[in-house]
Design brief:
mainly alpha, Serine Threonine Protein Phosphatase 5, Tetratricopeptide repeat, 4 domains, 65% helix
Length: 831
């Protein structure tokens, strides 16, 4: 056995023939001695591609150290299956690491051949190449795919799998039905069934279970064919297969009508495993109108029905995972034989079962995410999008919310746009669930970095909600709270503050003072206070919000708790208490990794702010390492042109500068600076903040005139948007004074330093590190102008306060003690 043998289905003891295909596949894979060239088994459904791959894995397993099976029929599930190999390979990643991080580690380990060079990965039922090709490893091992998609023929070495040759069909039936069939009868059956392996398997299972004579089987097959031909059938499935299937169901109906009813219901799920507990008793508010409610509530009926389906090889029962799987071919045939009213009835049943399964589960709650994940593969195949039932639409939007709450924004967008297209066409623009879907859509596209589109969509939707639902409807309030983020992203901080004050009042009146939704509104208002520079009020409100959210029974989600936790660490840092900010940030980061995973969007946002706190606290190496990791993760997860990635880039450039990597920092900022106006506009505070950082790096790299020009322009912009009495603006003013001093304009630098220091004391207080930096820089200018007595007095006072605030060994204190200039930079907060 290989050292790692993962998820490979059991070997089929009735496997027959295919020796030429196995030899061709084996020799083809073994011939690739320098680099892996994937091979694909291609053919229509039911020809035995999967069985051939299973047989290959078992027959040649001695040639591999690792054999890993990956169900690949839905791209959303491929990565999670591949990520499971990380643990088996004992890769050095955190147990709470995200799926993408685990997949990257697995692909890298396979590419390097460490710890194993001989590996085989089997992607079963792969769809379009672009869905899977990105996660196919390259290295010294082998990759085998099975697929019905002809597109693989232009991508990989492909082996076409056709129906059995007649002698293989006969040999298979003789093995499958020992002592129950003659060779001539096997020939007759193979002819009638078109030599399709799946059809032969079903026929063989029926023969074994019932002992039916072949003549009777063929007569029934002929009689059932006429009815089946009267309904539509999939174009790539032969008639003989549909006839064989219908006969199996007909015989099963005589033994267990309940089993047939259950099977038909399962045909309207997706082809992924169906959790067994979906078929448990329905809650009372869902049981009304359910055609299966009686059976679902009676294990004496349900258990035998499931076992009958297994005996007839119509489902695969996995007792370990407690799931039931119906082959997609069987599902298609089952659906096609039913009249449309029956199809609609079974679809409603499946929708009810799906919705009931998570009726009590909050999609924001990370504890509920595995449950939602298990249902994800059934949403589109069951046509949830077509339902007009309010309970089902509510469930559908909860799935969207689960996706973006867990960080899968792209899948959330794809799903909600499918819902909107259908629901608007059926129900019109004023339907409550259409409006709610648009609210979710705006959240998703904002999280994907399309901030202007989110703003415009929320503006339109808010107007419709107020008109259709009313000012104080729950959906209207939820959108109002979300829309505050749009205003913050636009740099309209004062308008966002007014908006969020009103939102909080409405939430308190509607939900109460400590409801989880009210606490979200409080968190947003605390951020507004921060952006407007009122750090005392921001700290008070943020601490109150966090206290309520952390209480047992608050109902707040892990990501909302983490957002508030990080907000508290950030405001403590901006108040100048760097050591305590690090402590709070460390706790928040550990919570994010544990509750969400290390690459969840909110965990990465916390990591970015923790890096800033470490840098401010003088922990330069730790800050740089964390900033570098965070920037790489953001690029990988959301791309370079995203607000979180841009913020992580500034954090990294600042950490590089602090660590002395001046050239690298400047190169990064030269790339980032043009992206900020494209994201936020030409007159946004964050754009000016990025320019401030760029100017700083230009000056320390010797480009003095350009630095001065950029800082002057940035200061004018910040004066206009935020006024001079703001933390961001005063930071730019400190750096502009340093530009002037570097160019020899010492007196102008001193004058700017004096006015800036006065404002810093008024805004931040005498002991804030930024105030002390302004004072320390003014000391340098006074010394350069020969005003030594004035400089000495200011220096002594500044150092006393600095050492008390940051300690004698802090890098900034050392610079001030040596009468050298201090530089400060800008870090955009999470909005």
């Amino acid at each position: 056995m290989p050292s790692i043998w993962g998820k490979v289905p059991q070997q089929n003891k009735n496997f027959t023939g295919r020796e030429d295909l196995l030899d061709k596949l084996h020799s083809g894979l073994r011939s690739d001695v320098t680099a892996v060239v994937p091979h694909a088994l291609h053919g229509l459904g039911g020809v035995g591609k999967t069985q051939l791959a299973i047989e290959y894995a078992h027959r040649f397993r001695h040639e591999y150290d690792v054999v890993w099976w990956i169900p690949a029929d839905q791209s959303v599930l491929v990565k999670s299956s591949l990520a499971g190999l990380a643990r088996e390979l004992n890769l050095p990643i955190a147990a709470s690491a995200g799926v993408d991080e685990a997949v990257d580690a697995v692909l890298d380990a396979l590419r390097r051949g460490e710890p194993y060079e001989r590996w085989l990965l089997i992607f079963d039922n792969a769809n379009e190449p672009e869905d899977v090709n990105a996660v196919i490893p390259r290295g010294s091992g082998h990759v085998l795919l099975t697929s019905r998609d002809q597109g693989w023929q232009s991508v990989v070495d492909t082996i076409v799998v056709d129906v059995f040759r007649r002698e293989e069909s006969v040999a298979f039936l003789m093995k499958r039905v020992p002592r129950g069939i003659t060779e001539p009868d096997a020939h007759r059956l193979a002819e009638a069934l078109g030599d399709l392996p799946l059809a032969l398997e079903h026929a063989g299972a029926l023969q074994v279970e019932t002992g039916m004579p072949v003549d009777q089987y063929l007569r029934l097959l002929e009689n059932e064919t006429t009815r089946l031909l009267g309904t539509s059938k999939p174009s790539d499935y032969p008639m003989s297969m549909t006839a064989a299937w219908a006969l199996s169901v007909s015989q099963l109906m005589e033994r267990s009508p309940d089993a047939v009813e259950l099977l038909r219901c399962c045909a309207f799920f997706g082809p992924e495993p169906i959790p067994r507990d979906l078929l448990d008793r329905l809650p009372e508010d869902f049981a009304g109108g359910s055609r299966l409610a009686g059976m679902l509530g009676d294990p004496i009926r349900m258990i035998p029905a499931i076992r009958e389906l297994g005996r007839y090889a119509l489902v695969r029962i996995d007792s370990e995972t407690r799931t039931i799987t119906v082959h997609r071919l069987v599902q298609a045939l089952l659906r096609d034989e039913l009249p449309e009213p029956e199809r609609a009835s079974f679809r409603r049943e499946v929708h009810t079962l799906l919705a009931a399964a998570v009726a009590e589960e909050n999609p924001d709650d990370n504890a509920a995410w595995p449950r939602y994940q298990a249902l994800l593969g059934h949403i589109s195949p069951s046509r949830v999008v077509q339902s007009t039932d309010p309970r089902i639409r509510h469930f559908a939007l909860n799935v969207v919310r689960y996706l973006y709450s867990s960080g899968d924004f792209r899948s959330a967008r794809q799903l909600v746009e499918q819902f909107l297209e259908r629901w608007q066409a059926v129900s019109g623009d004023d339907d409550q669930y259409v409006l709610s879907a648009q609210r979710h859509q705006a959240i998703v596209i904002r999280e994907l970095g399309e901030i202007q589109e989110s703003y415009e969509l929320n503006q339109r939707t808010a107007a419709r909600m107020r008109q259709v639902l009313g000012e104080d409807h729950e959906e209207t309030l939820l959108l109002i709270n979300s829309h505050g983020a749009d205003l913050r992203f636009r740099g309209e901080f004062a308008l966002a503050f007014e908006h969020d004050q009103d939102s909080l009042r409405r939430h308190q009146a509607k939900f109460g003072p400590t409801h989880r939704r009210t606490l979200r509104a409080m968190n947003n208002l605390a951020l507004d206070y921060l952006l407007l520079g009122d750090y005392a009020k921001a700290r008070e409100l943020q601490a109150e919000t966090f206290m309520y959210q952390r209480q047992a029974g608050s109902g707040s989600s892990a990501q909302n708790v983490l957002s508030s936790w990080n907000g508290l660490a950030r405001i403590v840092r901006l108040n100048g208490d760097y050591r305590r900010a690090c402590d709070i940030g460390e706790d928040a980061f550990e919570y994010g990794v544990e509750q969400l995973n290390s690459e969840h969007p909110w965990t990465l946002r916390v990591a970015k702010d923790l890096s800033i706190a470490r840098r401010r606290n003088g922990q330069l190496e730790e800050a740089l390492d964390l900033a570098d990791h965070t920037f790489d993760a953001q690029k990988r997860n959301v791309g370079i042109n995203h607000p979180d990635t841009l913020a992580a880039a500034l954090c990294l450039a600042n950490a590089q500068r602090a660590a002395g990597q001046l050239t690298e920092a400047l190169e990064l900022l030269e790339d980032m600076a043009p992206r900020y106006p494209r994201m936020y506009g030409d007159d946004h505070p964050f754009k000016y903040g990025c320019d401030t950082n760029l100017a700083l790096l230009l000056r320390v790299n010797g480009q003095l005139e350009r630095a001065l020009e950029i800082d002057r322009r940035a200061l004018r912009g910040l004066d206009g948007r935020l006024t001079r009495e703001h933390h961001f603006t005063l930071t730019c003013a400190i750096n502009l004074a340093s530009d002037l001093a570097a160019l020899g304009d010492t007196e102008e630098a001193r004058e700017l330093g004096v006015s800036t220091l006065e404002s810093l004391r008024n805004v931040l207080g005498d002991d804030h590190p930024l105030t002390l930096a302004g004072a320390a820089n003014l000391v340098v200018d006074l010394l350069a102008l020969g005003r030594e007595d004035e400089a000495a007095g200011l220096k002594a006072e500044t150092l006393t306060r600095y050492e008390r605030q940051l300690g004698t060994d802090h890098p900034d204190v050392k610079v001030a003690r040596e009468a050298r200039r201090l530089d400060f930079d800008f870090d955009p907060p999470v909005l």
